[in-house]
Amino acid sequence: MIEKTTAFTIFGKELCVKNYKCSHNGCPYMQKDRPLKMQLSLKLTSYCGASCRFCSAACGKGIKEFLNLKYLETVLNEMKRLNAVRGISITGGEPFTDIGLLNETIEMIFDILGVWTEISINTNGIGLKDIHKIKRLKYVDTVHISRHHYDDKRNSSYFGIDVPGSEAIKEAVESVYDPRIFVLNCLLLADGIGSSKEMKNYLEWAGDIGIKKAGFITAMPVNDYAAKNRVSYKDIFVVDEAILYTDRFEDFEYCNCRDGIYASSSGRMVEFYGRETGYGGPDFVRGFVLGPDGVLRTGYGEKAGIVADLKREIV
Amino acid sequence: MNEKEELIRFVEHIVKNGSGYNTEKSLKELRDIMVRNGASAEIAQWLDGMIDEWARAFRRRDSRSDKRRQGKNRPYEPDEMLAIKTVAGNVENPSDFL
User: Fold this and answer.
1) A27 touches chain B (CB under 8 A)
2) Helix (H) and strand (E) counts for chain B?
């Protein structure tokens, strides 16, 4: 029997944190290795030029707040002391809004935690034109591009702005040393990619532009639109001769995911995954989020628990 | 179907739908993905074997069809023979052309 949670102290605060590894292919849950490692998410800015109807992030075109590097340094040093970093996701708002800050953030992470720290960056796509301005791009593990439809016009309509199209993504993929750095994130929606057939069309298109991996995410019902158009990846991941399902992971009722490989009609292999988060979140900590407001939280959103208010702790 | 049967079915699909050297590339890509994602040594070896076997079979088939295309085993047509002789008569080493 595993102990689902354990105590973990950070910034002098004792928290109840996740203490097990997700179930892999139906195997029993296993105790987490020591030292305990957790994901740190950095909301670089609250600004995002897009206005997606299904977006759950508290960001937009309004106030431009940016992450304070002094606060980041404090958090990284504390997590280094605890040897607690599993990986870092750089998100927002749109992290490419300030490429200088993005570079400084990456530099700081590597300086404090080392270049082998797993880093991923999420962009709505506008960052692609600046991809080579990232000085240490070679050491960044993945750049996740939100891409909700294979058709350029339909995709842009989801964002409410013009985001780079297929040609721009293809150029970016061809310009980097390893195309596997790019991963597409597609939100499954009934009025978009919401069926097995559309998923295959998406993967065909992804293969054609050189993409090696795509994720299909079940939308969180954050508002009426998202709830009405919500499609579960489980309903469209069906048996198909062009698909090989590989692994699946479960984290009790909190979330689950499933991996697969698609053989496109032109012979390209495209890895894909589906991910779904349950309605009720766990009552224990699975990771940390540092936002531009200088507060380290146990998750996204205002409701998440506060670990440390760095504005108060650093004078 | 178990994991290995699923993989066999998928490889068969790739081979059935592939064309030329693309299939070899596809199988190699599949092998890389599987290994990167922690496939067992047994699965990796089996895929290596499939790739080798397929590549050998394809090259054998390819070289036979090449010969057919180049017409190496058929006699020259009279006009081809004349052309060869004409060229050969104007160079120092006619055997280079024969």
Assistant:
1) no
2) 4, 0
Phi, psi of B95 (to 5 degrees): -65, -25
Over residues A46-70, mean pLDDT: 84
Q: How far apart are CA A201 and CA A265, in angstroms?
A: 11
CA–CA gap between residue A31 and residue A91 (Å, rounded):
29
CA atoms within 13 A on the CB side of A280: 5
Give the helix/strand (H/E) hosting B80.
helix B78-89
Residue A243 has pLDDT above 70, yes or no: yes
Residue A224 vs residues A156, A217, A230, B19, B98: alpha-carbon distances, Å: 21, 17, 10, 47, 80
Kindly report the nearest CA distance between residue B33 and chain A, in angstroms.
Answer: 8
Name residue, tokens 């922690």.
B38
Chain B positions touching chain A (beta carbons under 8 Å): 6-7, 9-10, 13-14, 17-19, 22-23, 25-26, 29-30, 33-34, 37
Strand A23-24 relative to strand A243-251, pairing: antiparallel
User: In chain A, helix, strand, coil percent, each to 5?
Assistant: 30, 30, 40
Nearest to A51 by CA among A60, A42, A43: A60
In chain A, which residues have their Cβ closer than 8 Å to the Cβ of B7?
244
Q: Distances in Å between the alpha carbon of B16 and those of A301, B60, B66?
A: 50, 18, 22
Residue A237 burial (CB count, 10 A): 19
Q: What is the pLDDT of residues A168-201, one digit of tens each?
A: 999 999 999 999 999 999 999 999 999 999 999 9
What percentage of chain B reaches a pLDDT higher than 70?
Answer: 57
> Taking residues A246-274, what's their average pLDDT?
96
Summarize the confidence of residues B15-25 as an average pLDDT: 79
Distances (CA, A) of B28 to A53, B31, B51: 41, 5, 7
